[in-house]
Amino acid sequence: MVPNRAHLRVEVRALDEAALEGQCRHIRECLDTAAARHIMVLDGRRVEPRVTAMIARQYPAMHVAQEAPVFRLVQAAAARLGQRLEAASSCGSSDANILNARGIACVDLGTGMHDIHTAAEWMDLREMWAAIELTLEIVALQADVPRP
After folding, report:
1. One-letter-per-residue 3-state SS of the chain
2. Is residue 17 scored above 80 in pLDDT?
3. Phi and psi of 13, rounded to 5°?
4. Which residues are bridge partners to 46 per DSSP?
5. Pairing between strand 45-47 and 40-42?
6. pTM (2 decimals)?
7. Quick check: 57 pLDDT over 90?
8. CB-side exposure of 146: number of CA atoms within 13 Å?
9. What's the mean pLDDT when you consider all of the chain?
């Protein structure tokens, strides 16, 4: 049995706009190529599969330079706590993407989550506690208030 309609929902993530647009274009080309392979004549009538696409942006791309004031603040807080700070880009999305796009500079902090969005997801409570301490130190530094 062949359905007369199929819906495919795809999530695409990339670290920059050009890569995101390139990946979307590639997916569309693959779908168009697959559809073209399945043109047929049915009951004397030529039937051509049709691909329609709707792209909806959920999160804007985000990049925070290591020279940005917000990043330097996080570095200073980590240094005061003796924490090792590791900057990394990911294809994840969060409220930080939206806030940065609206001009509110911020970064995401790791909170000890591992195997995220899988059935094996788990949390390291020591890493969570370190993230809490870092957050409090960032607030103290920003407010210029000494912490006990």
Report:
1. CCCCCCCCCCCCCCCCHHHHHHHHHHHHHHHHHHHHCCCEEECCEEECCCCCCCCCCCCCCCCCCCCCHHHHHHHHHHHHHCCCCCCCCCCCCCHHHHHHHCCCCCCCCCCCEECCCCCCCEECHHHHHHHHHHHHHHHHHHHCCCCC
2. yes
3. -130, 145
4. 41
5. antiparallel
6. 0.72
7. no
8. 1
9. 90
Burial of 20 (0-12, 13-18, 19+ CB in 10 A): middle
Residue 92 pLDDT grade (very low, low, confident, very high; cuts 50, 70, 90): confident
Burial of 110 (0-12, 13-18, 19+ CB in 10 A): middle
Pairwise CA distance, residues 126 & 116, whole Å: 17
Q: Which two tokens stand for residue 7?
A: 């819906």
